[in-house]
């Protein structure tokens, strides 16, 4: 019987004792009594009532709503105008040349959308409006940005000659090394600088 597996004996589960409801009620009652005694033994904290709100004068209760109706609207409009002006100044003064070029190029569209939203009571920063516009016209923005970058690189390339030095500007385009030797004579230099003092 060496080949037969050993069978483990079944675990014996002890019987659950019957629940004595009277004893349980007595234990819970004692615990409640102890808790109540502890709570009553602690000193009571008496909260002072809050000070009553000052009563409005009968005149103020009649006049304030009228004043708020007339002045409140004008105040809100002036605050909005100040915020809109600050937003406009922040929007059109950025140091990144590409970003500034985009903002100026799409200025009319951004301002039109800002005005429509403001009239509807949902004004938002111009920066967010431009981001939304970029999302709508992503290909157009990317193409124009690439064109501006290429133009800037071409302009920088035109300012540098093959050897890396600056190219001459203006009427000096026909400048040659032979001409440099003819111009360096002392009498020509003296003639050019005769009335100049250093």
Rg from C-alpha positions?
A: 44 Å
Oligomer: single chain
Strand pairing plus helix content: what structural class?
Answer: mainly alpha
Largest sheet: none
Assess the beta-strand content as a share of residues: under 5%
Keywords:
198 residues, 0% strand
What report would you give on this structure?
There is one protein chain. This protein has 8 helices and no strands. The protein has 198 residues and is mostly helical. The longest helix is centred in the middle third of the chain and has 34 residues, at 58-91.
How is the topology of this model organized?
Blueprint: H1 21-41, H2 58-91, H3 97-105, H4 107-119, H5 126-136, H6 138-158, H7 177-183, H8 186-193
How would you concisely characterize the structure shown here?
The chain has 198 residues and is mainly α. The protein has a domain at 65-160. 63% of the residues lie in helices and 0% in strands.
């Amino acid at each position: 019987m060496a080949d037969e597996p050993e069978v483990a004996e079944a675990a014996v589960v002890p019987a659950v004792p019957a629940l004595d409801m009277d004893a349980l009620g007595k234990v819970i009652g004692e615990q409640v009594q102890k808790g109540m005694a502890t709570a009553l033994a602690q000193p009571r904290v008496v909260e002072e009532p809050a000070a009553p709100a000052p009563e409005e004068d009968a005149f103020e209760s009649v006049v304030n709503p009228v004043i708020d109706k007339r002045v409140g609207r004008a105040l809100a409009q002036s605050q909005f105008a100040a915020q809109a002006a600050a937003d406009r100044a922040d929007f059109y003064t950025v140091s990144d040349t590409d970003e500034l070029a985009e903002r100026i190029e799409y200025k009319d569209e951004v301002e039109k959308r800002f005005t429509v939203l403001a009239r509807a009571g949902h004004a938002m920063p111009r920066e967010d409006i431009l981001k939304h516009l970029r999302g709508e016209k992503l290909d157009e923005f990317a193409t124009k940005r690439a064109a501006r970058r290429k133009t800037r690189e071409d302009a920088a390339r035109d300012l540098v000659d093959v050897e890396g030095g600056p190219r001459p500007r203006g009427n000096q385009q026909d400048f040659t090394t032979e001409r440099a030797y003819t111009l360096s004579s002392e009498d020509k230099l003296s003639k050019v600088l005769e009335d100049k003092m250093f």
